[in-house]
Write a structure and sequence with these properties.
By secondary structure, the protein is an alpha+beta fold. The chain is about 40% helix and about 20% strand. The chain starts with a strand and ends with a helix.
Length: about 170
């Protein structure tokens, strides 16, 4: 069984993080955390969306730069080798991919935000909404795939998320 421990992190306060990449997939070596003794799951992927906001003034003109990233936290992610296999790893990778999918949604929503005195408040509100949607979506994914045990549903989700990331 696998679950996602979701971290809502607004600033890059971790030294060891992995930035989501289409080319680089997670490996079990990336999972450096220790499972809790009471934890029933086989693995946990700790991932989250971060953003930074900066205003740049050049030649009397103000412009806004917002950087959004999907991050994986190795020290907060763990697995139990005796319970995990390639199917479970693929399931965990999809949790990270889903985080990137919602980071893309966040980036899209940010394009509608205008640079004004309430910009921080507006960006924060969108961030909170996106994270709530992400959390609900991650839970739905686990339920529908039965934490990777329903191979047919896992395959459907793999295709669905891959297609969404390509759009």
């Amino acid at each position: 069984m696998c679950i996602l421990t979701f971290s809502q992190i607004e600033a890059q306060d971790e030294d060891r993080v992995l930035l989501w990449s289409k080319e680089r997939k997670l490996t079990w070596a990336d999972y450096q955390g220790s499972p809790l003794k009471t934890e029933w799951a086989a693995a946990t992927t700790a991932s989250g969306i971060t953003y930074s906001l900066s205003s740049i003034i050049a030649n009397g003109e103000s412009s806004l730069e917002i950087i959004v990233n999907s991050l994986f936290y190795p020290d907060k992610s763990w697995y139990k080798p005796e319970l995990c296999n390639d199917v479970v790893l693929s399931h965990e990778q999809l949790h990270f991919d889903i985080t990137e999918l919602f980071a893309k949604k966040f980036r899209t929503r940010l394009k509608t935000v205008r640079n004004d005195t309430n910009i921080k408040k507006k960006v924060r509100a969108i961030f909170v909404e996106i994270n709530a949607d992400l959390h609900a979506f991650q839970n739905k994914y686990d339920r529908e795939t039965n934490y990777s045990r329903d191979l047919e549903q896992q395959s459907i989700w793999n295709e669905k998320i891959a297609k969404s990331l390509e759009e």
